[in-house]
């Protein structure tokens, strides 16, 4: 693997400077608050979409699944942080635990699920557009030309 772990991690006997440690700690707190806020908002949106019968349609089912994938991602971030930062003395570059590998694999899966649900959302919207212009095919091609800037 390039670069070797020793070069990538570059652990030295000197401890990190206080300002860098403070910055990383603050950064971690900020994104934790951001993911927590996102998680609460997404769960609220899922509850609203499922609670009211008026909102039951294909578009909103796709939205619910997309929101669920974002909930999964926020949960994966919290799980990953819990596993990685549980023991500050552990060198994660040279020691790779099963819990660490599982947490990172779950995190990567959640990102993949986000992209696939975004793809499904785009495919659904494209299908709606294509079907609404089936009878007027020539206008549809104008939209394609305009959309690609030609």
Question: Would you give an account of this structure?
Answer:
There is one protein chain. With 150 residues, the chain is mainly alpha-helical. It has one domain. The protein is 75% helix and 0% strand. The chain is built from five helices and no strands. Helix 2 runs antiparallel to helix 3 (58-84) and helix 3 (58-84) runs antiparallel to helix 4 (98-132). The protein is elongated. The two termini are 45 Å apart. The model has no long low-confidence stretch (mean pLDDT 79). The chain crosses the membrane at residues 30-49, 115-134.
Shape: elongated
Mean pLDDT across all residues, rounded?
A: 79
How many beta-strand segments? Answer: 0
Secondary structure class reads mainly alpha
**Could you give the order of the helices and strands?**
HHHHH
Membrane topology: Multi-pass membrane protein
Keywords: Membrane, Transmembrane, Transmembrane helix
Subcellular location: Membrane
Pfam families: 7tm_2
């Amino acid at each position: 693997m390039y670069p070797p772990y020793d070069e990538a991690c570059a652990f030295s006997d000197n401890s990190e400077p206080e300002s860098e440690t403070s910055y990383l700690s603050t950064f971690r707190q900020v994104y934790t608050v951001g993911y927590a806020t996102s998680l609460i908002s997404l769960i609220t949106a899922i509850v609203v979409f499922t609670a009211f019968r008026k909102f039951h349609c294909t578009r909103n089912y796709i939205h619910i699944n997309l929101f669920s994938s974002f909930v999964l991602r926020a949960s994966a971030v919290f799980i990953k942080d819990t596993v990685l930062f549980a023991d500050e003395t552990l060198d994660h570059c040279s020691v790779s635990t099963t819990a660490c590998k599982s947490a990172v694999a779950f995190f990567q899966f959640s990102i993949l699920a986000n992209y696939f649900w975004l793809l499904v959302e785009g495919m659904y919207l494209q299908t709606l557009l294509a079907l609404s212009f089936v009878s007027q095919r020539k206008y549809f091609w104008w939209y394609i030309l305009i959309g690609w800037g030609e």
